Amino acid sequence: MSEFLVSLPFLLRSGPYCVYSSWMMIYLCASVIVVPSFVNGIFNIGIFIYVRSRSRRVQIAPHIITNTILNNKQRQQQRLSLLSRREISLLRHMIFMFIMIIGGWGQGYFLLVIGQFLYIPRIVHECAAIVCELAVLTLTINLFMCNHDLRQHLFNKLRGRVAR
């Protein structure tokens, strides 16, 4: 439903299909870059808060030594205040994905908006298209590297085809 509402200005406009007014290009850039980035940021914050709350539930195992009760409380307080390795890894991954999407795809749409006001050579648009394609390739490689279940499934499928 939201996709239909977002595309309404393009469907209901008058004039040639290949010619867009400047407000349409700004609307396109906002609907493709700004709004999804905002929604992605909200979802990533929610995921991070969920992961952080789950990692806080893990308790440090008590030691047999009697004077470690205070040390355990100090460790728990330090653990609650600092980010764990898992949380840092999650943040790095989220930031990397966000930068690749915005850096890869955002510049192409920004060039379309700027192209309404300034002359931009064709080679710049072609370089932006190559950067977009490299961003997609990088995100796909990242998906295979970070998703162990998907990687295992694909390797099993490949081994099954080779064995036949």
Strand-residue fraction? under 5%
Estimated helix fraction: over 70%
Biggest sheet descriptor: none
Total helical elements: 6
Low-confidence stretches: 62-67
**Coarse structural class:** mainly alpha
Compressed to H and E, one letter per element, the order equals: HHHHHH
Shape: extended
- How far apart are the first and last residues' alpha carbons, in Å? 46 Å
Seen as an oligomer or otherwise, the chain set is single chain
What is the radius of gyration? 24 Å
Mean pLDDT: 80
- Using DSSP, what is the number of strands? 0
Protein name: G protein-coupled receptor
Keywords: Membrane, Transmembrane, Transmembrane helix
Transmembrane segments: 20-51, 95-117, 123-145
Organism: Adineta ricciae
Task: Explain how this protein is built.
The structure is a single chain. This protein has 164 residues and is mostly helical. The chain has a domain at 71-163. It has helices at 2-11, 22-56, 68-81, 85-114, 122-146, 148-163. Helix 2 packs antiparallel against helix 4 (85-114) and helix 4 runs antiparallel to helix 5 (122-146). It is extended, with a radius of gyration of 24 Å.
Observed structural traits:
mainly alpha; 164 residues
Explain briefly what this protein structure is.
The chain has about 160 residues and is mostly helical. It has a domain at about 70-164.
SSE layout and pairings?
Layout: H1 2-11, H2 22-56, H3 68-81, H4 85-114, H5 122-146, H6 148-163
